[in-house]
Amino acid sequence: MSASDEGRVLLLKAADLSIVFGGLRAVDDFSCELYRGELVGLIGPNGAGKTTVFNMLSGIYAPTGGEIDFWDRQGKLHRIGKKSPALLNRMGISRTFQNIRLFNNLSVEDNVRIALHARRAENPVDVLFRLGRFHRDERRMIEWTDELLSLFKIEGKKHELARNLPYGEQRKLEIARALAGNPCLLLLDEPAAGMNPQETQELMKLISLIRREFRLTILLIEHDMRLIMGICERLIVLDYGRIITEGKPAEIRRNPAVIKAYLGEEAATPTAGPTAGPTAGPTAAVSGPADAEPGDSGEGTDG
User: Fold this and answer.
1) Are 86 and 8 contained in the same domain?
2) Within-domain flag for 97
3) Which DSSP letter does residue 40 get?
4) Is residue 153 located within the same domain as residue 245?
5) 192 and 127 together in one domain
């Protein structure tokens, strides 16, 4: 397995990814490395290509060009650019979506249990004849489900239909279901979209908690800059399908290319004259986009 000079263990490496829809090149020459235990943010204006990147990493789209290498829990290398979402989920890649995708007519509990089936140990004979291994698996699934729902503080609603949960709890349930697959890489696509400030603050703490508890690598798309600057160790910035820069949050906040991508050429140009003070600088400009623009509203308008 590959590791950096700093001793970090490489989990995923994307090299020169591109994807073309008709005549539109939605993502071009996207490359990144994700290391075990990292919490990395993927940001950029609406339409920058962020969700398209997620769709390639999770097997929904096959890249037109480039390669994706992934090291599973046992350290085995897989080239995953052409593999299905179901197979990638079994390997250890789980995700959530911009638009919440729950089984609305199933209970909260069953939404999580469905994702646990990939972890079952019994075979068809065990199920058909209700042998001991089947019952042991059933007990484990109930225990795992209760633990996850308790972690997200929705265990009291496990018998309710998913569609009846408040919006913020539906978001939590989707993340709980993603965790049920026992991933080593979790892709969160705008988890705070539509949440109020209090729910967003709780989500920040929750993401940090599940990263520690589950020893996860997390790649996060988010428009709420307070959230993403507050919890991510490293940021990758996309604009028009290409990476324009990457680095630590403090560096990204002051980067003229990032300010230009969000707010235009004039915002990236220092203002001359005596009226230009500290609040007119790049830091103020990039701290604001999350408050000025809502999260992407759907899969069709890629973030």
Assistant:
1) yes
2) no
3) E
4) no
5) no
pTM for this prediction: 0.85
- The CA distance from 232 to 5, in Å, is 21
Contact 119, 148 (CB under 8 A): no
- Residue 7 sits at the vertex; the CA angle it makes with 18 and 13, to the nearest 5 degrees, is 10
Q: Which of 148, 181, 214 is the last residue of a domain?
A: 181
CA-based max dimension of the chain: 83
- Residue 172 lies in domain: 103-181
Look up residue 276 and give its amino acid. Answer: A
Q: pLDDT digits over 165-197, tens only?
A: 999 999 999 999 999 989 999 999 999 988 888
pLDDT in tens, 123-154: 777 777 677 777 888 888 899 999 999 999 99
CA–CA separation, 256 and 258 (whole Å): 5
Give the whole-angstrom CA distance, residue 262 versus residue 303: 12
d(CA 125, CA 144) in angstroms, rounded, equals: 23
Residues 18-36: pLDDT tens digits? 999 998 999 999 999 999 9
The residue from 181, 207, 229 where one domain ends is 181
Amino acid at 211: R
CA distance 268 to 153: 43
**Which of 49, 12, 34 is CA-nearest to residue 242?**
49
Tell me which amino acid residue 97 is: F
Residues 222 and 239 sit within 8 Å (Cβ to Cβ): no
Instruction: Please enumerate in sequence order all residues whose Cβ is within 8 A of that of 251, keeping only pairs 6 or more positions apart, or say none.
Output: none
CATH number at residue 277: 3.40.50.300
Cα separation, 199 vs 5, in Å, equals 39
- The helix (run of H) or strand (run of E) holding residue 229 is helix 225-231
In a domain, 98, yes or no: no
Confirm whether 298 is domain-assigned.
yes
